[in-house]
Specification:
The complex is a heterodimer. Chain A is an alpha/beta fold. Chain A contains five helices and five strands, in the order E-H-E-H-E-H-E-H-E-H. In chain A, helix 2 packs parallel to helix 3. The radius of gyration of chain A is 13 Å and the shape is globular. In chain B, strands 1, 2, 3, 4, 5 and 6 form a six-stranded antiparallel beta sheet that branches. A five-stranded antiparallel beta sheet of chain B has the order 8-7-11-10-9, with helices on both faces. A five-stranded mixed beta sheet of chain B has the order 13-15-16-18-17, with helices on one face. The relative contact order of chain B is 0.07. The chains are: A alpha/beta, B alpha+beta. The interface between A and B is medium-sized, with 20 and 25 residues.
């Protein structure tokens, strides 16, 4: 059962909204606004799922995805406004991301995706949008 | 299709240059052809003159012989010594027929003769054939070149009258290789390769300009063929691998013809090579022009390609900048819509606050994009300058940013009562954009300092950060609209890249200047100098001289 969710998002408002939605679904949300911050959180709290914004100041969200192979049990959800761009999808596939969710879609979508991880065996490359 | 269209200006330019070059070449070729034709015609005309001179020379020689036989009392008896003496005296004094003379009966048997060594050609020499034919036709006779022990000899025959009747034939001889005709031909100079020639009806050289060739065959077959076809003319042909020209003209006597040969290169000389030079120059011009056009077009295509790339990047940045606040607004609105019943009052307030703030931000961003587009299109923005308090404006902006970016300490040090003639909104916008810029490029917690210095006629306001700084090259372009897009750092720093270009435009409009001091990795300082207001204002009461 996924319990602890890492939210890597530099936009405070978007983090607040996503945090509220995911928390209210019963998950424990830890927030990070930079890649370094997120790595530190992974080391200390071992999240089950990481929601990763791609466009971040300094290091990109993809850097985090690369580093996250250190925690193979952690599911990675890329959470971006560029969900429809072929580059994003190709990159996500290449980096074995579990899901890509559009930020512009219904905020509840993210909860559905997190829940889907509990439903059965892990299906890598599944795209949830 | 668009790729093809890109090449239209290049193709059109090349076609124009080619057309101009072709017209030039055609004109040059036409002028050249005319010049060559004139030169040919001149040479043929000269050849006809030479032929006519030869004709006259032979006529003179014949007349000389006529004069001799008509005034000399010849007995015409075979072997008559008096006749021999007459002939010898004539040959010795004649300038023309000075090789020998002979009297022949009408039946062809020799009567008397005298000649220089090595003697006369025998009666069986085929060279006499044309002479006989002429005589039978009732004309004076002219032989072909005959050779006696390698001496080339030509014979001229006239009838000898006795009692009103033709009683015998007098034949006068001259050495073809040593007579005024040959000397004259030798003196004719046509460059280094030009030769004036005279041939008989068998193609043997009567005169050659080079006396060693006299008596030998002229073997330029194309010239002989041309001569067989027409009385006079000009041909160009190849002889022993050399391109030659020949002018030719029949002499109208004895089947002889005058010919002048010369190498074609020497004959046409500058006319033809001039044409070649013009063609080469035009071809060179064409190549240079085509290369220049290609390069210009290539440069333009590259600039266009960069502009496209830049535009794409710009659009991507702008889209991202618009999408982010929209996402927050939408997320907050959707979440509120679904969950407001279960949310706490604080949470509802927080979400409404997000919507409100992000809507404001979005609206500002759109205004900035429109302003940037306006300025880029060269359209002015309406400004309403009034005396404005610098400190007041700086305080307002600073406090606004302290709320938005609490992580960055903003230190303000500015004197009171410094007024500038400026549109207050424009001034706020300038300070706001510079402050936003300083914060954006500062590390988290990085301090931003604002300092104003009151000078007699102006006020300088500097905004310094400890951010990433910029290189000299970046400094040169930093005020260009969308420069950030070109710099490619849009993923690290948000924004559309219009702020500083707007700042510079507004500062210019306010009659001020803006300068930058910056070191990569060590922050930047933007300093604006604005002229002070001409109308002094009453001091405004203030509670604090400087904020922090």
């Amino acid at each position: 059962m996924s319990e602890r969710i890492l939210l890597l998002e530099d936009d405070d408002d978007l983090a607040t909204i996503t945090d509220a939605v995911v928390s209210s679904a019963g998950y424990d949300v830890v927030r990070a606004s930079s890649v370094n911050d997120a790595i530190a959180q992974c080391e200390s709290v071992r999240p089950d799922v990481a929601l990763v914004d791609v466009q971040l100041p300094e290091r990109s969200g993809w850097d985090f995805v690369r580093e996250a192979t250190r925690w193979p049990e952690m599911r990675i959800v890329v959470y971006t406004v560029h969900q429809d761009e072929p580059e994003t999808i190709e990159q996500a596939a290449r980096m074995n991301v579990d899901a890509v969710v559009g930020k512009t879609s219904d905020p509840m979508r993210i909860v559905d995706v997190i829940r889907s991880f509990d439903d059965g065996p892990l299906e890598k490359h599944a795209k949830h949008r | 299709m668009r790729a093809l269209k890109r090449f239209i200006p290049l193709v059109v330019s090349i076609v124009v240059v080619v057309a101009v070059a072709l017209v030039g070449l055609l004109q040059s070729a036409r002028a050249n052809a005319t010049a060559q034709q004139i030169r040919r015609d001149d040479r043929v005309s000269e050849e006809r003159d030479l032929a006519s001179l030869t004709n006259q020379y032979v006529m003179f020689a014949l007349k000389d012989a006529y004069d001799f036989v008509s005034v000399t009392p010849l007995s015409l008896k075979p072997g008559d010594l008096a006749d021999t003496a007459h002939i010898m005296a004539y040959v010795k004094r004649s300038a023309l027929l000075n090789y020998g003379g002979a009297l022949v009966s009408l039946s062809g048997s020799p009567l008397n003769a005298y000649s220089a060594k090595p003697g006369l050609p025998p009666a069986t020499d085929p060279g006499y054939a044309p002479l006989r034919a002429d005589l039978l036709a009732g004309k004076p006779g002219i032989s072909s070149v005959m050779t006696v022990s390698s001496v080339p000899v030509v014979a001229l025959a006239v009838p000898v009258q006795k009692g009103g009747e033709t009683a015998a034939i007098f034949i006068g001889y001259f050495r073809a290789d040593d007579n005024p005709l040959e000397t004259y031909n030798e003196r004719l100079h046509y460059g280094k390769s030009g030769r004036a020639l005279l041939i008989d009806s068998t193609g043997t050289l009567v005169a050659a300009g080079d006396r060693t060739r006299v008596g030998k065959k002229f073997d330029d077959a194309p010239v002989l063929r041309a001569l067989a076809a027409r009385h006079s003319g000009f041909i160009e042909y190849t002889s022993h691998g050399t391109r030659m020209i020949a002018s030719f003209s029949e002499d109208g006597i004895g089947g002889w013809a005058s010919i002048t040969t010369q190498s074609a290169a020497e004959f046409f000389g500058a006319i033809r090579s001039g044409g070649l030079h013009v063609a080469l120059a035009l071809a060179g011009l064409l190549v240079v022009a085509a290369a220049a056009l290609f390069l210009m077009n290539h440069k333009r295509q590259m600039a266009l390609a960069r502009a496209y790339e830049y535009k794409g990047q710009l659009l991507a940045n702008t889209t991202h900048e618009l999408k982010t606040p929209l996402t927050a607004i939408r997320g907050a609105a959707v979440t509120l819509g679904m969950r407001w019943r279960t949310m706490s009052a604080e949470q509802v307030d927080q979400f409404l606050g997000i919507i409100h703030r992000r809507c404001d931000g979005l609206s500002k961003l759109i205004e900035r994009i429109l302003l940037g587009a306006r300025l880029e299109a060269g359209r002015e923005v309406a400004l309403n300058p009034v005396p404005t308090d610098v400190l007041g404006s700086l305080r307002g902006i600073t406090s606004e940013f302290k709320d938005v970016s609490p992580k960055h300490p903003i230190l303000l040090a500015a004197p009171e009562n410094v007024w500038v003639d400026a549109d207050p909104e424009a001034l706020d916008q300038i300070f706001g954009l510079l402050l936003e810029n300083a914060i954006k490029y500062s590390p988290e917690g990085g301090e931003v300092r604002i300092a104003a210095i009151d000078e007699p006629r102006s006020v300088s306001i500097s905004i310094s950060d400890h951010g990433v700084g910029m290189s000299v090259e970046e400094r040169e372009h930093i005020f260009e609209p969308y420069f950030r897009a070109a710099r490619g750092d849009s993923s690290r720093f948000s924004g559309v890249g219009l702020g500083l270009s707007i700042v510079r435009h507004l500062v210019d409009r306010l009659g001020g200047t803006i300068t930058i001091e910056s070191t990569p990795g060590d922050g930047s300082t933007f300093t604006i100098t604005l002229p002070k207001a001409t109308t002094p204002m009453a001091p405004t009461p203030s509670l604090e001289g400087a904020d922090r």
